[in-house]
Amino acid sequence: MTFMEPSEQQKPEESLDYFGIKPGTAMIIILLVAVFFRMFNISETSLWTDELATYWASTAPTVQETIDRVAETQGQSPLYYLLERGILDYLPNNEFSVRLLSLIASIISVYLMFLLGRLIFDIDAKALFASLIFAIHETMVYYAQEARPYSLGIMFVLLSQIFFLYMFRRKSIFDFIFYILFSILTFYSHYVFASVLLAQNIYYVYIIVLKKSPIHPSPQKWILSQILIAITIPVLLFQLSGMFDNRVAWDWLRQMNIFQALKLLISIFNLKVLLLLAGCFILFFTSEKIDFKARLMEHSSRYFLLFSWLVVHFIFIFCVSKFLGISLFDPRYFVMCLIPFFFIMSGLVHIFKSDILRVAFPGVYIVLYLGFISIPNYMTYGHFSYRITHNWRGSVSFVNKNYKPGDVILLRSGFVNENWIPSTENKIVQDYVKAPFRSFYWKKRKGLPRPTIYNLTYTWEKDFYPYYDMIFDKAKGYDRIWIMGVNTPNTNYPVSNISTLFEKEFEFVKIYEANYSGVYVCLMSSNPYKNEPLSF
Known about the structure:
Number of strands: 5
Strand order of the largest sheet: 2-1-3-5-4
Shape: globular
Order of helices and strands: HHHHHHHHHHHHHHHHHHHHEHEHEHEE
Strand content: 5-15%
Structural class: mainly alpha
Helix content: 55-70%
Number of domains: 2
Largest sheet: 5 strands, mixed
Radius of gyration: 26 Å
Mean pLDDT: 88
């Protein structure tokens, strides 16, 4: 007996081998595909700006300082960074080590998608296809190769959902305990994933009110589980209250109205994917007519679970953004919406009753996805996903080779916003904005002190004129100035404007200028004839 209606039990004709392969063998193949897509060129690309922030926070001198750094600058729980710290303590500090935690979490999630799919559908083919979609999807491949907490959060979300649904199948204290544990870890991996708890409560009420399952946690047991999860929140109350008090400083994204937010949500599903799915369906629909209303009614509880999960997460992000004044309107915060979307897609591509169509539809979809998305990504980025290409490795390494004592660096690493003026007395923030030069890209050279760095803000506003007057007055006293930085999406001036200003206002001469995949580097000198040739 499951949490679903009797009509939703696996039918004998639906328990066929997947593409003629036994489910266990198919799962192994999917895992191998997932490993290949995620491992391919994982160390080829430099850590980008946010990944350098992860490295900086995770390599603080002490555990307490890691926690303090995360609380002060990252706007999320320190769990991911503490786990990352444990890895970096034992492995060589390089791109692979920094991204390893996300890689492992994402590979585990491929298998968890299969387990959760079996609980939702009771059909191996649908569960395997959902896992396969997850394995090759560009967004999931991307987060498996990015040193940020999203893959870890997805893994814990899947584990929380698995043990949540187990409680509607069997009466086991272990399911209850593991559900609470993984729900807590979901919250602690990233606060934005806490929306899954709201979706679970809505689904629980739905099951109780409509009596969809004879097995379910009693109201007393369910309330106890939510209380036990909630009482862990005060552990991070200091950080949450601090984030609320400083919410203006955290608000680096623009606010959106409901229509703009919906447009952003739809964009994460990838219009190409939706068009491919629609095209495949139209092609196969001509071979077999489908009664959609009957199929949806037949499988009402599973689709209620999936659609509520997707919609609740969107509403959660919208409400938090509006009520707390901290905009979360960014694709990274909508990533959890993709998980129920993958299961919905798996249900749709297996909607036909014909054995041939139940194999052909998903097969054609996968071929088209690889051809129109995965391969073009590889041709463009050298990965099977899009990339944020901030080549700090190349830029910092070049400066490291050519930096001389007495040089000064004007840096915009992307960490500084209008509310974190670099002249702040906050020692953590002062170090945070120099994160690229606190990484393993900056090699210690004998007799070479840490570089002198002044930090540039995102935007050029009148309020910052006194600050810029101060750092420019100091910088023009140096013979050589390095100007470095990324052009953030919401900036009103490129970093190159600073080099132009020094040319026109202070008569400095450009010795070297280049763009390292989004990181601008320019060396300027007040006395160019004394400069030695640069090392490349």
